[in-house]
Every structure is written in structure tokens, then in C-alpha cells.
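Running this now, will post back.
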Amino acid sequence: MVTQRTKKLRLFAALAAFALVLAACGSSSKSSSGGGSSNTAAAGKKGGALVVGAEQWPDCLNPITQCANSSWLQWLIPIHVLPRLAELDPNNNFVASPLITELPTTSNGGVTGSGKTFTVTYHLNPNAKWDDGTAITSADVVFSWQAVMKSTGSVT
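Update: finished.
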């Protein structure tokens, strides 16, 4: 037996679902402030706020130390702002980042030697720059590598 109250709840649920569908299908005359491309965004607009949502806030944002050792932290901040030599494409294949001209391989001479002794040679993109316009150099790569290898509490 369906009571009057149950009928009202069903009607309310149906109306709420219908309202959500209408809202999702509707359009807005307001302009969006994010997500799209604009000349201002492409030029690197300065200022604003970074809003981050996470299940918990990390002890620190240093991507190489133990205090930042959570799997989701790397997806929260560092992967979006730190330069890297290689990155993953949508199919999880390593590809050259914009920082280098090509990914080193044995076929292009970027990886030489074998066994325990080998050399990897990266060719930096001459257009790779820090946000202040300074060129990214091999000294920057060495500094980052040494920071990972020698920092106290480093996740190596």
C-alpha cells in the first residue's frame, strides 16, 4: 500500500531530478572565468589565486622529501608546475617534455653503453625558459638531480 507521504516523496524526487536535467541542459549568458583559452591566459596573466582541493593537506609541498610522500600529492601541485625531462602521454608511454628536443634512446644515440655502465644524454630545448625568462641549462638539471640524491629525507 502506497501512502500519501510516499506519493509526495516520489513526486518531489521526480521534480528534483527533472530540475537537475533542465539545469544541466540549459545555457548561461555569463562568461566563464576558467577552462577556456584566451589571449590573457595564453600570455601568462599574473596574480590571482590557486584553489586546490585535496583529501588532506600535505605536511609540505617539497616534491623530493619524505614530508611530501603521498601518491596524490604529485598530482596536486608538482606535476603542474615543475619542469621535467620526460613525461607520460595519454597511453602511458614516456615522451620528451617541452624541456628537451627528443627523448634519449639507443637508436638516436642518447643512451650509450650497457649493463651497469651507461650514459644518458639529454639535449635541452634552447627555448626552455624559467618563468623569469632565464634559460634552463644543464646546471639546473644537475642541481635538481643532486637535490634528489643528497637531500636529507629525500624519497629516492
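Confidence is low (pLDDT under 50) at residues 32-41. More later if anyone needs it.
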